[in-house]
Amino acid sequence: MNLPRRKFFQLAAGAFAAPVIARHAVADAYPSRPVHLLSGFAPAGGNDIIARLMGQWLTERLGQTFVVENRPGAGTNIAAEVVINSPPDGYTLFVTNLSNAINATLYEKLNFDFMRDMLPVAGIAQAPAVFAINASVPAKTVTEFIVHAKANPGRINMGSAGVGSTGHLAGELFKMMAGVNLIHVPYRGNAPALTDLMAGQIEVLFPSLGSSIEYVKAGKLRALAVTGATRSDAVPDLPTVAETLPGYQAASFYGIGAPRNTPAEVVEVLNKAVNAGLADPKLKTRLDDLGYVPLPGEPATFGKLIADETEKWGKVIRFSGIKAQ
């Protein structure tokens, strides 16, 4: 990380440090026109689901349209750079996610420093992935899958939403801890990978719970486990991978980021609106049904999560030797 953690937290905490009078003046005027909320992945994935749920809430709460734009590519770096280079006025925002913490190590050269240039605004939710396989794979438990994979080294295809994506890293951590050899097949987004998993073009995938839960419930794919530290209330019968491989954990997070130097009063309006959404029974129930755990709190709290995840996954990337493509 190029930016010291303490400095990063100071930037996030400083979002509430503006004079009270000035804050109220700008806060009363924001937003006065449509706001663009950029997602770095293709439609139908977990990132897109969160963007549209929160975008709809913010539209209703703040009285201006929050337009969700999908700009996939380079592991969310394309969308992140667009937002970072946008005017810091609160009208171009970013759906921050675990990929941004991963990319800090995965990419040797970026045109930005995420922890320096993207201001954490608010956490939205955290969610495990699902350890999912095609029904043709002769395994009904994580243990059975490990036995099958060790008997077929280099012959099982593991899809992902792309090199360095959350699902890719969840799979690499599994490979490392289970001692199995799976062939990585990157896609341009989670949705096409899910389609090919159900069609049998790949055998394994670690999709977000939100994007795959309906397929799991419909029996269109076989879920062996969830990747969080605890079982999910959305699919309570599914064990965690950690019940077979102690210490395993891979949970995505989602939130909102804004260009550095976005006015503190704008950040405050957005942070309060997001937190209100996470407390709203209707939205909370929808998140619960999809397996998401709300992440309320101030910008500094969200900033600390980003810093911690950047450190954790940096170690996995260096161990696995993954390189950005």
Gist of the model:
This protein is 45% helix and 18% strand. By secondary structure, the chain is of the alpha/beta class.
Keywords:
alpha/beta, D-Maltodextrin-Binding Protein, domain 2, 2 domains, six-stranded mixed beta sheet, 18% strand, three-stranded antiparallel beta sheet, 13 helices, 325 residues, 45% helix
Strand order of the largest sheet: 2-1-3-10-4-11
The CATH class of the largest domain: Alpha Beta
Shape: globular
Overall SS class: alpha/beta
Q: How many individual domains? A: 2
Tally the helices. Answer: 13
Overall mean pLDDT: 91
Tell me the CATH architecture of the largest domain: 3-Layer(aba) Sandwich
Verbal overview:
The structure is a single chain. The protein is of the alpha/beta class. Helix 3 (46-62) links the parallel strand 1 (35-39) and strand 2 (66-70). The protein has 13 helices and eleven strands. It folds into two domains: 5-127 and 252-320, D-Maltodextrin-Binding Protein, domain 2 (3-Layer(aba) Sandwich), CATH 3.40.190; 130-243, D-Maltodextrin-Binding Protein, domain 2, CATH 3.40.190.
Write the layout of secondary structure elements.
Elements: H1 5-13, H2 20-29, E1 35-39, H3 46-62, E2 66-70, H4 77-84, E3 92-97, H5 98-106, H6 114-117, E4 118-128, E5 130-133, H7 142-151, E6 157-160, H8 166-178, E7 183-186, H9 190-199, E8 204-205, H10 209-217, E9 222-226, E10 251-259, H11 264-279, H12 281-289, E11 293-294, H13 299-320
Parallel strand pairs: 1-2, 1-3, 6-7
Antiparallel strand pairs: 3-10, 4-10, 4-11, 5-8, 5-9
Helix pairs in contact: 1-13, 2-11, 3-11, 5-13, 8-13
